[in-house]
Description:
The structure is a homodimer.
Chain A: E1 13-18, H1 22-31, E2 37-43, H2 47-55, E3 61-62, H3 66-70, E4 75-78, H4 85-92, E5 101-104, H5 110-119, E6 125-132, E7 152-156, H6 163-175, E8 179-182, H7 185-216, H8 227-233, H9 240-249, H10 251-274, H11 277-292, H12 297-300, E9 304-310, H13 317-327, E10 334-338, E11 347-353, H14 355-367, E12 373-375
Parallel strand pairs in A: 1-2, 1-4, 2-3, 4-5, 5-6, 7-8
Antiparallel strand pairs in A: 6-7, 9-11, 9-12, 10-11
Amino acid sequence: xxxxxxxxxxxxxxxxxxxxxxxxxxxxxxxxxxxxxxxxxxxxxxxxxxxxxxxxxxxxxxxxxxxxxxxxxxxxxxxxxxxxxxxxxxxxxxxxxxxxxxxxxxxxxxxxxxxxxxxxxxxxxxxxxxxxxxxxxxxxxxxxxxxxxxxxxxxxxxxxxxxxxxxxxxxxxxxxxxxxxxxxxxxxxxxxxxxxxxxxxxxxxxxxxxxxxxxxxxxxxxxxxxxxxxxxxxxxxxxxxxxxxxxxxxxxxxxxxxxxxxxxxxxxxxxxxxxxxxxxxxxxxxxxxxxxxxxxxxxxxxxxxxxxxxxxxxxxxxxxxxxxxxxxxxxxxxxxxxxxxxxxxxxxxxxxxxxxxxxxxxxxxxxxxxxxxxxxx
Amino acid sequence: xxxxxxxxxxxxxxxxxxxxxxxxxxxxxxxxxxxxxxxxxxxxxxxxxxxxxxxxxxxxxxxxxxxxxxxxxxxxxxxxxxxxxxxxxxxxxxxxxxxxxxxxxxxxxxxxxxxxxxxxxxxxxxxxxxxxxxxxxxxxxxxxxxxxxxxxxxxxxxxxxxxxxxxxxxxxxxxxxxxxxxxxxxxxxxxxxxxxxxxxxxxxxxxxxxxxxxxxxxxxxxxxxxxxxxxxxxxxxxxxxxxxxxxxxxxxxxxxxxxxxxxxxxxxxxxxxxxxxxxxxxxxxxxxxxxxxxxxxxxxxxxxxxxxxxxxxxxxxxxxxxxxxxxxxxxxxxxxxxxxxxxxxxxxxxxxxxxxxxxxxxxxxxxxxxxxxxxxx
Lengths: 377, 377
């Protein structure tokens, strides 16, 4: 049977979501608007949270327990933290019927997917999942039906994974606006260690070093922190508990990536110490090219030109700048504010596409009394 | 004599700027508007650049050579790269008169200030300077008279520095809108190594590691790069030649700071490997507190609340969002755009001061059809 819709479900799929926190409830809200979904059943051990999810329209019905929720489901989503997945999978295993698609939303995959595969009967079709979305809020109260619009949702098949199950999930996730990327389970944890976990830990280390030097040596050090330092340390302000969990769950991959990073820092140190300018130039040049080629706004539409505009610190200035530019029909490709080190005033960065647009926008802003410095990023 | 204005200069100071590139020409434009400055003389070995500076109003007159420029100057600014300062100082030394204040604009200080002090007669008053401003543009054509408004300008005295000379420069720089911070010359190079040079090198290393893994292992890796990775690597796109110069000039301080950073990465690696969650929690928590306490918008005005708004990719949406908020009298404290990994669409981050302002702004945006997710950073 190659049809993706199970027999008897032509009217729509029955989806069970176990865990109706921020991600589970947001997913429920999204899936309830998908034409091929007939029904979303929710369950959570937190009765108050489950009630919130129901009242916010995240689920059609709530189940009395996990077994009840999954008994007749076509798709079961375990929207629980990675550490809770193995026990939940074992708990529901006897109640899953053949052909049910079982997925999760954990940010690490190898151990979690192996645990799900080990826990359930062979007829249950396991596919690991990882939505790269969310916020630092918790709970159904903060759920949003647009949470996954434009977000990347990784699906992580193993050699045992059923291709039709991947296609069924791919269809549902695409319908809620997510962009599905298929990544081998074994590779997943290393990839996220590089693009997500390593930047967090380097930001934490940099911030920690600077803060201790400021305490020990010169409190004014942090007064000198400009845009580069602020960018590089921004994620150091993230939730420690969340990162402790991630470090625990993905320890092996993170340690391996940290070792590679430390080796590169050591090589860089030697280039500097030995004055090996040829290698240093190559490193700086290659990294610059790679950064400028990152998929995204920087290159999607041609050569961006950055306008830098000192802004008066009053309501309305930012709106006036953006409105002035938009009224010319010029699209703002990127923007941001760089604050002065002590937080007073600041400079607006505003990227537009091409030198003509930059000149048009710059002239209009200058006429309104703004100082505009143009630069190619 | 304690008066800061030299005898016979009651009508205003004569300032000579050697090097009329971006920084020198911008400084000239700024100083020409200061009441206590009578005259700005410029000189540059690049005759075309010097001519541009004159025509853009960066100087009152151009000199025939460096000796001519400095002969009767009260203040001489060496606006040349750090590597060129010692030879320029030696060249002009015989032509400087007693009491002249000699300063520079180099981003590293210890060696440069020592070279200036060694080159000139004892009556010349040397004060190292470092404006933390500029752009990646070069040349007088891109100079701007507001370049230093709100920028930090470090002055770096040594035991030999004359206090009146520091005060004279402090007055001029404050008059052009810069915020002067006095930092011991010996400490300066370590401070900038920490807040400026280390973030550049960690960004370069992170970008380089990810790019090589993408080549070797999975090209889709960079598709997964979200806001955290983008922030942490942003400065990796900086000009390699500029950073090669900085690495050469400030090698000793950078190597020492890199060693300390590498030791911290090693400690973090051991915490992860050994599962030392108590120390890891402490590290993550301390770094978070330090990042949130960075002087600046984050704490200057109370608890910021961040609104996250998915934006349609069309001209006008950003202006509509900012205008809607401003029309309520709500000040936008910070803003930025996080692009989806593949560059399509994106989410606007908009920080306002306090939960009341956030609710007001969020409601108004929701009425206009925007989805708003609120979070405390």
